[in-house]
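To assess whether ligand presence alters the predicted conformation, the chain was also submitted together with flavin-adenine dinucleotide. Input:
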Amino acid sequence: MPDTSRCTIVLFGNDLRVDDLPALDKACQRADAVIPLFVQDTARAGDWAPGGASLWWRHHALVALDDALQARGSRLILRNGDTLEHVQAIVDEHDCDAIHFTRRYEPWAVALQKDIHDTFASDTFTVKRCAGALLFEPEDVRTGSGDAYKVFTPMWRAMQELPPPREPLKAPDKVPAPERWPKSEALDDWGLLPTSPDWAGGLRETWTPGPEGAQARLTWFCKNALETYASDRDRPDKDGTSGLSPFLHSGNISPNRCWYDVLRYREDHPATENGAQAFLRELGWREFSHQLLTMAPGLPDQAFKSAYDAFPWDPKKGHLKAWQRGQTGFPIVDAGMRQLYETGWMHNRVRMIVASLLIKHLLIDWREGEAWFWDTLVDADLANNAAGWQWVAGSGADASPFFRIFNPMTQGAKFDPDGDYVRRWVPELAKMPTKHLNAPWEAPADVLRKAGVKLGETYPEPLVDHKSARNRALEAFEVVKAS
Ligand code: FAD
């Protein structure tokens, strides 16, 4: 393979940044000209094409990427349609002799990257697949017998015994431009932003997509939340986690940058030791999900443990919609679902509670919840989302056992002890005393009256009775056990 290139295409995907991007860095080192290209190839992704919230994020992240490239004497070329056709056209028109991209793990993207390799790689054309989305490639973290890990803790131990992850690379100062640019489509013509109705107001207030927003959030996290992260990460009433998930998903920041920035901050601030360890471990869960998706490409659609295929789902009319809209009558669940709808994000503890209610109390197939998250989360990620849902459903690798059924009332009282989270997202309960906040249906009539709550009118009655729903779920689980 020649170590110089006349013209290299850098094909972007979920790596929308210029900092610590090996695919771009290598291109800048060896090519006379670089053509940065993003192809929106929704047909390839099929059912797992990005949902509404992800497209909103994508629009802004593409603007930020173009700005970063312009500042380096380059620009981003946008094309819509079949990736192979667009790459072929640009290769022909601009006499390109190389293409670089960051390795992806979604099954459709794996197939696409293989097709690019099979179509273009030759003695005179270089196809370079670079690392950049994970700390370690799945094949580099293996059990003693050479298999992929199905349990997180030993995998995390093994990761710590490997040589440390690659140090992040600096963004190139300059990206060499071609003599003439290929035609680009206009981002605004893609219609990624919602217009009628414009539901993205809460997203705009919450997020600054792109690398600058990512770095600002990481710096904020180190200064303000890292020290207490180990204890506060389960508290949805606090801003106690990094909020980096959408940036990591779309590659606005690399996991290596997060890893090393946190380690360096810890060196100067020893009080953050526990928080830093807990945070790095969460990055480890992200690696684990990607390892699972690589091992089981059907993970988003099929139970990892096939015995769960027999689960007797029993959805009731209107329950899915009530869950989606935060109208279940269980305050912590409704708070989470409304936070999701408003901001495109939900706290991890609450993701587990809402998922448990959907699957176990309402007996609705976890794939329905996964699909709703896919459409509404700004961090919707095929590996993390599928692994998260299967963890709660009990059907995943290293999953929570099915019989562990979250009680939404005690979860609310434990993790939102003063009720601030519920009051923020379910304002119709704002005046309820904390004692009755998580189970308003048990509050005496005068308490409800004083708080201005009329059950069934201002706030719904619970969709199901917790105890009987729990028993029903355990009975349903018997079918799985028997199969
Ligand atoms: P932090 O606590 O600050 O963690 C740092 C980073 O570690 C996160 O940004 C994320 O990249 C990673 N991480 C943390 N927890 C997990 C986890 N359990 N599994 C994998 N990676 C993790 N995460 C997504 O990124 N996309 C999803 O689509 C997604 N869907 C989920 C669905 C369900 C049902 C559940 C239970 C969890 C899901 N998660 C998903 C995992 C987790 O809830 C989020 O990553 C986390 O809440 C993001 O907030 P944060 O960035 O503040 O996390």
